[in-house]
Amino acid sequence: MRKIVIMVFLALAFIGCNKKNLEVASETSAAGSEASEYTVGIAKIIAHPALDAIEQGVIDELAAQGMTVKFDQQSANGEISTAGSIASKFHSDKVDVAVGIATPMALSLANTLKDTPVVFSAVTDPLDAGLRTTNEAEDTNITGVSDMVPIKEQIELMNSLKPLATLGFIYNAGEANSIATLAVLETVCKDMGIELIPTTVTNTSEVKQAAEMLGGKAVDAIYVSTDNVVAAAILSVTESAKRFSIPVIGADPVTAAGTGALVAYGVDYYTAGRQTGMIVADILRGTKPGDIAVKCMTAANELKLYVDDAVAAELGIDVSSLQEKL
Fold first, then answer.
1. pLDDT value at residue 322
2. What beta strand segments (E) does the chain contain?
């Protein structure tokens, strides 16, 4: 199966936004080597390709900047209680900076670490989530990178490939980022005359059933946003959609690649990780988190388009119009 990954050079106006392959200093050993100068805790709410890419991007950026850092890398495995335990661990260990990847993890860190710099990444709407009151400078220990995706452009892209009368959407109502996405998606679909059929899940084991339900309703396409629960189970979506010959459009090119999704357009999550690493480096060098504006991923080289032409052939969908985006 041949895959095409296209870097998109477009300037878009978004809604909502104005182990390791690096040189890491070793901990003190029996031989008496020095401990790292800084300790950075990196925690993600769950492991999936997009969040893993962010984590790697942070590590690589700090290495590229010549920072001497010891990393404490953690995953909450989708459990909010575990996220809280990780936050408490970072507090007890007195990390110099705590990085929270995805909204639930960032909130856990923010609620526990009041005097420690917290840098979030892959948070769709930091204002709505309560992490900040403004994207500009303010008196806070929290800053980071938003991954608000170009929802209108995503749906328009899918509609150009296959006219949409109905669109299925699976999301976890417990994720603030997914609630923010739903609000925008409802507006976009209403404006485009598309009936949105949303369905909620609470964990990855429910995703397949939700996808089967949408397949039974014969929706014209299924939209997979940056919802962490659904992204972690994207194969359940694409496998079910294939049974009903329904295309899947994703908001995350990294997670969608090779899964059976037809197309995905959104943030390049490794690049988001590098941007997050830049913020961490600035803080380690003395910049106050509150003096750093929230970074929104809108530059041309921060977006990516993924197209699976083999899936397109199976579905009988012509994707040749996307060649103009090369």
1. 85
2. 4-7, 38-44, 69-75, 97-101, 118-123, 142-146, 166-172, 195-201, 222-224, 248-250, 263-267, 295-296, 303-307
Measured CA to CA in angstroms, residue 39 lies from 96, 193, 218, 220 at distances of 5, 51, 51, 48
Which has more confidence, 52 or 17? Answer: 52
pLDDT digits (tens, 9 = 90+) for 136-166: 999 999 999 999 888 999 999 999 999 999 9
CATH 3.40.50.2300 residue spans of the chain: 14-148+268-297, 151-267+304-325
Rounded CA-CA distance 120/42 in Å is 10
Q: Which residues pair with 39 in a beta bridge?
A: 70
Q: What is the mean pLDDT of residues 61-68?
A: 96
Please give the Cα distance from 122 to 138 (Å, whole number): 20
Helix axes 151-161, 176-192, angle to 10 degrees: 50
Summarize pLDDT for 303-315 with one digit per residue, the tens.
Answer: 899 999 999 999 9
> Residue 62 in contact with residue 22, Cβ under 8 Å?
yes
- 78 vs 17, higher pLDDT: 78
CA distance 308 to 261: 7
Query: Tell me, what's the pLDDT at 36?
Result: 53
pLDDT of residue 17: 52
Measured between alpha carbons, how far is residue 5 from residues 72, 305, 311 in Å? 32, 6, 14
pLDDT surpassing 70 at residue 171: yes
Could you report how far apart the first and last alpha carbons of the chain are, in Å?
20
For the domain 151-267+304-325, what is the CATH code?
3.40.50.2300
| CB distance 162 to 129 below 8 Å | no
Top-level class of domain 14-148+268-297: alpha beta
Q: Is the pLDDT of residue 301 over 90?
A: no
Residue 122 region, left (φ>0) first, then alpha (ψ -120 to 50), else beta?
left
